[in-house]
Design a protein that fits this description.
33 residues; mainly alpha; single chain
Length: 33
């Protein structure tokens, strides 16, 4: 069984990786000087 706490922790981890990945993609697109 997956507890609510594990779901929240997993969602937070997924959110963080998506956030970091999104930042990396944005940097590649805009290429700041």
């Amino acid at each position: 069984m997956i507890s609510r706490r594990q779901m929240i922790q997993g969602g937070g981890l997924l959110g963080m990786t998506l956030l970091l990945g999104g930042c990396g993609i944005l940097k590649k697109i805009f290429k700041p000087p």
